[in-house]
Amino acid sequence: MVREESSQPLHVDTFLVGSGRPERSPGASVNVAVELTSTYAADGAVNYARVGNPTWNAFEEALGGLEGGLALVHASGMGAISAALSLVPPGGTVVAPDTTYNGTGDLLAAHEEAGGTVVRVHATDTPGFLAALESADLLWLESPTNPLMDVTELDVVLARSRELGVTSVVDNTLSTPLLCRPLSLGADVVVHSVTKYLSGHSDVVLGATVVADSERGRGIGERLRRHRTLHGAIAGPMEVYLALRGLRTLSVRFERASASAAELARRLADHPSVERVRYAGAGAILSIDVAGGEAAAERACAATRVWLHSTSLGGVESQVERRRRHPSESCEVPVNLLRLSVGIEHVEDLWADLDQALRAA
Ligand SMILES: *Cc1c(COP(=O)(O)O)cnc(C)c1O
Q1: Of 120, 160, 181, 196, which one is the catalytic site residue?
Q2: Which atom of ligand 1 is nearest the CA belonging to 207?
Q3: Cβ < 6 Å from ligand 1: which residues?
Q4: How far from 93 is each of 104, 143, 155, 314, CA to CA, in Å?
Q5: Is residue 251 over pLDDT 60?
Q6: pTM flag (> 0.85)
Q7: Ligand 1 center–CA 359 separation, angstroms
Q8: How far are the Cα atoms of 63, 69, 218, 240, 335 from residue 177, in angstroms, in the given order?
Q9: How confident is the model at residue 226 (pLDDT cuts 50, 70, 90)?
């Protein structure tokens, strides 16, 4: 349920359709305008478009409501992640999972090169997180992890982080607010690659941060806003409009994709060409270790016709990729692992295509 001011709480599906719209007045447009402007006439609330834009406001209202906080849109997921990592003091200590999104991993390595400390804990090692938090400045979490699909006990780790006053950030891209709302578990910041499920159509690159609507949350939010304004990684209004349009259908897309992912995970477990299925039990991503090693995994990707062999995830089209193609991918990820981002095509077409591709490999 999403609580809107002075009204009954709405189901998420209903909120997604109605939020971020212009007020209903006679003759008003049903959609927010794409505000293409770099500046505004003097003496208004915002004077320059690197600082604010009405199209951003509409998207931020929708995503903020969905996560239960205050949202900011950024130029990309990495723009949002950079802003969140700017909360770490120079030379400070970050506690993070030993496998993270590879861009995050590279930024954490840069933090170490600059004299900072990163303590890496296996995503499922709750006691390891609790111990590491004692000396942390910032906790970074991603659950499930990408692409190993390890699930962290977010409630336990975030509760301890909160007790110790350690700033916590959760990359919620894979779960989406439909599966997990980290602010309600005590997280300080949620980051999203809006590029993925929230937009959902593989046509924009965009990011977001969300903070709690509390004194502490608003304070952190001001620091993130300042980072966005001064470092300048701001979103184009057209991209934000497309993301808001994509967001309207998030629940139906995610529901279909998740149901298909569950079915594929079940069938793949018995496939002769699959050594292991990695699936978090919910969501629309799963990974498989392909029998026959790296070469067989590559051949399977090349043999798909319905599945798109490409990087990224969360679009309406199903995507498959061998993650270790990327030199920056963690060595913890097996060379024969394929990440499957399940889209909204018919599950029988997805199964038939995957089955033939794996057998051809
Ligand atoms: C893609 C992704 C990112 C990076 O987002 P961009 O929009 O590509 O900058 C960060 N975290 C996760 C989990 C992702 O999947």
Answers
A1: 196
A2: 7
A3: 76-78, 101, 103, 142, 146, 171, 173-174, 193, 195-196, 205, 207, 313
A4: 15, 20, 21, 31
A5: yes
A6: yes
A7: 31
A8: 9, 11, 20, 18, 31
A9: very high
Q: How far is the CA of 193 from the centre of ligand 1 (A)?
A: 4
Dist. CA 268 → ligand 1 center (Å): 26
Give 1's pLDDT tier (boundaries 50, 70, 90): low
Total residue length of the chain: 361
Determine the average pLDDT of the residues in 8-23: 94
Mutate which of 73, 74, 82, 101 to test ligand 1's pocket (most atoms within 8 Å of Cβ)? 101
Write down the mean pLDDT value for the chain: 96
Calpha distance 150→13 (Å, rounded): 28
28 alpha carbon – ligand 1 mean position (Å):
35
The answer to whether 160 is a known catalytic residue is no
Q: What is the pLDDT of residue 329?
A: 87
Q: What domains lie within the chain, and their CATH numbers?
A: 12-247 (3.40.640.10), 250-360 (3.90.1150.10)
- Shortest CA distance to 104 belongs to which of 123, 88, 74, 82? 82
What is the Cα 260 distance to its own chain's centre? 20
| Band of residue 9 on the pLDDT scale cut at 50, 70, 90 | confident
| 166, pLDDT greater than 80 | yes
Catalytic one of 171, 181, 278, 323: 171
Asked about 171 being catalytic, the answer comes back as yes
Residue nearest to atom 9 of ligand 1 (CA): 77
**pLDDT tens-digit readout, 67-110:** 999 999 999 999 999 999 999 999 999 999 999 999 999 999 99
